[in-house]
Specification:
It holds the Pfam family Glyco_hydro_1. Keywords: Carbohydrate metabolism, Cellulose degradation, Glycosidase, Hydrolase, Polysaccharide degradation. GO terms for molecular function: beta-galactosidase activity. Its EC number is 3.2.1.21. It comes from Dactylosporangium roseum. Helix 3 packs parallel to helix 5, helix 7 packs parallel to helix 9 and helix 13 packs parallel to helix 14. The longest helix has 25 residues. Strand 11, helix 14 and strand 12 form a beta-alpha-beta unit. The protein has one domain: Glycosidases (TIM Barrel, Alpha-Beta Barrel). It is α/β, with parallel strands linked by helices. It is built from 15 helices and 15 strands. The protein has an 8-stranded parallel β-barrel, surrounded by 6 helices. The chain has a 3-stranded mixed sheet with strand order 7-9-10. A two-stranded antiparallel ribbon has the order 1-15.
Length: 478
Amino acid sequence: MTGPERSGGPMIGTAPFPPGFLWGASTSAYQIEGAVAADGRGASIWDTFAGVPGRVHNGDTGDVAADHYHRWREDVALMARLGLSAYRFSVAWPRVQPDGHGRVNRKGLDFYDRLVDELRGNGITPVATLYHWDLPQALQDDGGWGSRDTAQRFAEYAAVTAGALGDRVNVWTTLNEPWCSAFLGHASGEHAPGDTDPALALRAAHHLLLAHGLGAQALRAVLPAAAKTSLTLNFAQVRGADTGRATADAVRRVDGLANRLFTEPVLRGRYPADVRADTAGLTDWSFVRAEDLAVIATPIDLLGINYYGPTLVAARREPAAGAASPWPACESVEFRDPGLPTTAMGWPIDGESLYELLIRLHRDYPGTPLVITENGAAFHDTVDPAGRVHDAGRVAYLRQHLAACRRAIAHGADLRGYFVWSLLDNFEWAYGYSRRFGIVHVDYPTGTRTPKDSAHWYSAVMARHALPVAEQGDTATS
């Protein structure tokens, strides 16, 4: 089939998105590439973590994943058929520098060279993320994100990669979701490297932000002037379960760690005073040097938003104790079930919360262009006897969240694009292969790709550059 794949009849009566709005899909290297020992790739912390019994569901690993390393040409052809205007992928640091520094693995860079050329040849804009959690194990052995030196090594890696691809890739993201790297990786231990030290997690968060700043400077030194740099954060739209003062404090604490710990230093050159005060019992913040904040606040051209659902909190009557938590200094916070429909991840579905977040970012950080770099839902999808995957829940989810985007734009938010998570079913970190986020179904034993109903629906939206009025309420005129 040539041109965008379509499902159903024509979209009669549409509410268009702004001219130049970018339509895309996202993936990450460890989740889809496989080929972990091919062509000189070094080990990453996720190779190590997944190899520890009990860390990942069913003992799954990313050794094969969706086999994108061998099927990249097929996957790009699929993107073209769906009508994507952009594809956001991550570069595997251990493919480029197996030891995390020094020697550059030309065969690893060659893979991304071929991928970028194929994307451009099909009219698809490549959007590169430099770090999506696959830290070279050699750097972890030297201290990982707990070590300040890792930030400098990241800047060197950024310069090498942008030097090789920057003549064809014009949009670069330094880090994906540093909150997850810091707090799931070092406080709760749910992600690699699996540490459970809240003080280490806060230090790692700072070094990740320093890596972002140094990386952004390295990119600027190498890339053409017209290239864009960005950072992608996973935001929480935090709501209180009641109007009490204690619950308001719970909202403040979670918002501080999830959102402001990252936005304030990057966009305003300062750490939130309340977060530093909240965590004073865990660390004295001596890892922050006088010159660091100016580096972290190196200007960016876009702010990437990864968003999946709202967070409801209340004050806890008795402070939590025992199990490791990704929320340092939040022992007094209780996370509540908002009573909404959920995805297979158990995450609440609420497009209105995305609208609220976009308007908040527009209000709090005016002049900062925004891009939805991840938004999507996991469901338990199966291929029926006719070879179709009917994922009505995902279609409804995407419709609701794209309507929220359109409404936020109508109310002034400078939203430049939307990338669905994810193009392909993949290795979903500690959940292994038990959760499917893709708009394209992957049969893992054979690698067969089957576009789901959501892929056909999204294809039609992209083709018309609009949501049908019947599907997006009054957002066209509100």
